[in-house]
């Protein structure tokens, strides 16, 4: 496989921007970043690479076959991040998720087939498995049981990748990563939301009793894993990418408060998300057998993340003054007014 140009979709988002930075630093590829710049896309995430001669940004929708077809003819490989990515927003507006995560993925695959690209790395999610019960740790062979509109849309996108492999021989590889944390994550997501609210001495809205368990993967470790899969992943195969850093939300919140030296009295227990998955847990032996392992344990990953939000206030202040403010009010206004403080909830 000879890669000269990589088409990255969704590169202005959280993981995509970190991955573009990783790719530029570790390879001499040309990179085309196709991103629609939804509320989650932010070109500030890529300020340090925007003038690099090997980097090109194109604003466009992965569902637009004309734009996608044109860019695909210049690409040898595709790394596809573009998606609507937030579960809570999928509960409010599932149609947008079908449009991008399912239909958009189809448009990319079809264009990749026509252009005969050499590699198509698709970023799926651990949420396709649904919630793990008891000690269940999902392997790549486990069935899909998505429970949110987001997870179902991601499952729909991924299944098409497998179909394009089986039917047309498209050289696809699939990544199923756990929850990422790190720089440039939009503050609607749990860790930046809690961190920024704590910095601002605002209440931290925790769903239910905060007992849901997630595995927290540091975004740089994820980028290393994706680099490996792009070059060494077996065609047609899916790979779990977990860090074995499982913690429940209340443990995460307490760790953030401790790092920032803020009181637990900022915690509020709010009405839970409908259908909230209790736990995601994956066995990642398959990618570890290829030679990857995460460098950050939970504490190191969280410390680096919290430190970044502490020192990059202008980045999140600009976001919080825009669309985010309305979203936050819709999502948390009433729930916070009815919330239980930390002491009472027990
Ligand atoms: N963040 C996580 O913890 C996590 C975990 C598992 C999987 N994933 C997957 O990784 C990928 C990236 O996640 P993220 O957290 O960086 O998301 P994000 O929401 O931060 O970024 C998504 C990016 O995609 C762009 N985009 C959205 N719709 C588009 C469209 N129709 N056409 C072109 N661009 C579009 C947005 O503008 C944004 O830049 C997603 O596919 C997500 O499902 C994320």
Please render the helix and strand layout as text.
Layout: E1 5-9, H1 14-26, E2 30-35, E3 55-59, H2 65-72, E4 77-80, H3 87-92, H4 94-115, E5 119-123, H5 149-168, E6 172-177, E7 179-181, H6 190-199, E8 204-207, E9 213-218, H7 219-232, E10 238-241, E11 246-248, H8 249-259, E12 267-270, H9 285-288, H10 298-311, H11 313-320, H12 323-337, E13 340-341, H13 342-345
Parallel strand pairs: 1-2, 1-4, 2-3, 4-5, 5-6, 6-10, 7-9, 8-12
Antiparallel strand pairs: 9-11, 12-13
Helix pairs in contact: 1-7, 2-4, 4-5, 6-8, 6-10, 8-10
Bound molecules: nicotinamide-adenine-dinucleotide (NAD).
Main-sheet strand order equals: 3-2-1-4-5-6-10
CATH superfamily grouping of the largest domain: NAD(P)-binding Rossmann-like Domain
Cofactors, ions, other ligands: nicotinamide-adenine-dinucleotide
Q: Sketch the topology as an H/E string, one letter per element.
A: EHEEHEHHEHEEHEEHEEHEHHHHEH
Compute the number of helices.
13
CATH class of the largest domain: Alpha Beta
Protein structure class: alpha/beta
Mind telling me which CATH architecture of the largest domain this is? Answer: 3-Layer(aba) Sandwich
């Amino acid at each position: 496989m000879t890669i000269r140009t990589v088409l990255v979709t969704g590169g202005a988002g959280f993981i995509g921007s970190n991955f573009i930075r990783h790719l530029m630093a570790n390879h001499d590829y040309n990179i085309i970043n196709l991103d629609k710049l939804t509320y989650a896309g932010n070109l500030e995430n890529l300020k340090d690479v925007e003038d690099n001669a090997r980097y090109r940004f194109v604003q466009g929708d992965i569902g637009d076959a004309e734009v996608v077809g044109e860019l695909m003819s210049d690409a040898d490989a595709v790394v596809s991040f573009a998606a609507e990515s937030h579960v809570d927003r999928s509960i409010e507006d599932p149609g947008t998720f079908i449009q991008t995560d399912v239909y958009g993925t189809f448009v990319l695959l079809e264009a990749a087939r026509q252009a005969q690209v050499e590699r198509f790395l698709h970023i799926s999610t651990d949420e396709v498995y649904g919630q793990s019960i008891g000690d269940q740790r999902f392997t790549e062979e486990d069935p899909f049981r998505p429970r949110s509109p987001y997870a179902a849309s991601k499952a729909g996108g991924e299944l098409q990748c497998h179909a394009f492999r089986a039917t047309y021989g498209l050289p696809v590889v699939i990544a199923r990563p756990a929850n990422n944390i790190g720089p440039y994550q939009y503050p609607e997501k749990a860790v930046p939301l809690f961190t920024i609210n704590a910095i601002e001495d605002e209440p931290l809205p925790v769903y239910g009793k905060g007992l849901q368990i997630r595995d927290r993967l540091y975004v740089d470790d994820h980028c290393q894993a994706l680099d490996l899969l792009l070059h060494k992943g077996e065609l047609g195969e899916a790979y779990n990418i977990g860090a074995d850093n499982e913690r429940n939300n209340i443990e995460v919140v307490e760790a953030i408060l401790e790092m920032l030296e803020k009181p637990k009295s900022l915690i509020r227990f709010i009405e839970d998300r409908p259908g909230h998955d209790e736990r995601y847990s994956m066995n990642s032996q398959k990618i570890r057998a290829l030679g990857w392992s995460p460098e950050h344990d939970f504490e190191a990953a969280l410390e680096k993340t919290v430190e970044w939000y502490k020192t990059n206030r202008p980045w999140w202040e600009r976001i919080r003054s825009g669309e985010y403010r309305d979203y936050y009010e819709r999502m948390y206004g009433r729930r916070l007014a009815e919330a239980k403080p930390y002491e009472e909830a027990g």
